[in-house]
């Protein structure tokens, strides 16, 4: 996740914005093989996208995304917000490695939800979704957007290439080479701070202690099992589910509900396909 509230306050606004740009993916300090109490991805996820970004003081950052159409990737709006980050101009699709494999495509255009607003540390990001149009289609299989998120308690899974060290020091961030996964569950709105979760924002908690998405995971998928056990997309990593100075691993996460934006997604793709 990458919003300002994911970043513990820093001495300068520049450092805050830089960390915001990198998002949040939870990690165990010193462990390059797990998000906090997570594992390396145990299977291929052909729809997983990595979006290289840079920011002042951090030239090698990353966001996540989900291939939802052969030529379209869904990500977080703050991952393409040029006030925060500079996208490298490419997207890697379908690889379990951050810098190798899969299919690399150039970004032909980005489309941010018109209601997008940064929370600014006083609340959640609003309408934190954006679409990336690739310069040409890929062969990888997209993930379907769920008709609706499962009820609170539904098992879910997070994917990301975010830092494997939960730290507020830019120099201490460590992005894994291999895709990480973490089993979580949909939480009740009351398990996030008041005003954070709602119809368009899903409160999410880990099913293991001290784990949640962190810097570098923004825009990545939250998945649930649909009919026949197939993965389907319910969430887009957006930010923390609580305010204040909270480490990534100790609190709930907040995910933009992909089903809530299905009409906007379809309309944007039709108008710009």
**Overall helicity:** under 10%
**Which CATH top level class of the largest domain fits?**
Mainly Beta
Q: Would you identify the CATH H-level superfamily of the largest domain? A: Trypsin-like serine proteases
Order of H and E elements: HEEEEEEEEEEEEEEEEH
Unreliable stretches: 1-37
Main sheet attributes: strand count, strand direction, barrel closure: 6 strands, antiparallel, barrel
Number of domains: 2
Could you walk me through the main structural features you see in this protein, from its secondary elements to its overall organization?
With 273 residues, the chain is mainly β. It folds into two domains: 13-23 and 45-142 and 261-272, Thrombin, subunit H (Beta Barrel); 155-260, Thrombin, subunit H (Beta Barrel), CATH 2.40.10.10. The protein is 8% helix and 33% strand. It contains two helices and 16 strands. The chain has helices spanning 13-22, 262-272, and strands spanning 24-25, 39-40, 48-55, 58-69, 72-75, 86-87, 90-93, 103-112, 130-134, 155-160, 180-186, 201-206, 213-215, 221-225, 231-240, 253-257. A six-stranded antiparallel β-barrel has the order 10-11-12-16-15-14. The protein has a six-stranded antiparallel barrel with strand order 3-4-5-9-8-7. The chain has a two-stranded antiparallel ribbon with strand order 1-13.
